[in-house]
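Aim 2 progress update. The chain analyzed this quarter is reproduced below.
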Amino acid sequence: MGAVVNAILDPILIFGFGLELHGAAWASVAARAAIGATALVPIVRFYGGFGRPNLASMPPDLRPVLIIAFPAILTQLATPIGQAYVTRQMASFGEDAVAGMAIVGRLTPVAFAIIFALSGAIGPIIGQNFGAGKADRVRGAFRDGVLFTAVVVVVVSALLFAARPLLVMLFELDGQAQTLVFLFAGPLSLLWFFNGMIFVSNAACNNMGYPFYSTIVNWGRHTVGTIPFVMVFSAWYGASGVLIGQAVGGIVFAAIAIIVALRIMQSGGGTGGVADGIDKRTFGWMHRNR
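Predicted structure tokens:
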């Protein structure tokens, strides 16, 4: 629903009302509102809405929610902060560069929608087998997730490369904007494999009882894994270096994320079963109050 609202309002606000970048920003705000409404309306319509909270019931309800939700929120906050720096750095190269990056930003969730979905789909599979003490299945699911990511990225990158002429026609590309889009629709899209590795590893950490590890990895990826790399590569290659630096930083933290996830799997294995590796300080309260 958010994508539909964005697709409708972008041309109306940007071209129809002549708002340019401001129009794109307002379309994004409207898209977020549509996402929120789409999520909340079924709750009100089919499940009776929200009960009135009271102080007595809030602490026992909030604790198991916040155990997962708080680190998950922190994890998601890292992405816009890193992206804000990347956008600011790209803005120093002019409006054409910003336009090119905006097109890449629109293409990315469409092209790699399967990878974004995988991060949510593989978590329950890993978590179920982790809780059942099936160490081999945990490792197998993790391995298959990484292999699946590799296949999807290669196929999508080939399609993007073949679609370059279509992208030129669709977005009326030229100059710096075309350079950036072509850079993405080719070598840089292949490096999205490493972002996928981070997604799979974070999902594994979350579902094996270590959500704060995902928070640390994501914040690292969007701060020290973004800012210095973007600074260095933009100094070398200009606007193209901004995208290159961002992608290279992902390689470093993908390696870190994989190592962290594998260490958790190893620490939870052995004769006692994988489930013994769950952090009892974090999840013990939930187990006692099932």
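The CA atoms of residues 123 and 162 lie 33 Å apart. The longest helix spans residues 58-91. These observations will guide the mutagenesis experiments scheduled for the next reporting period.
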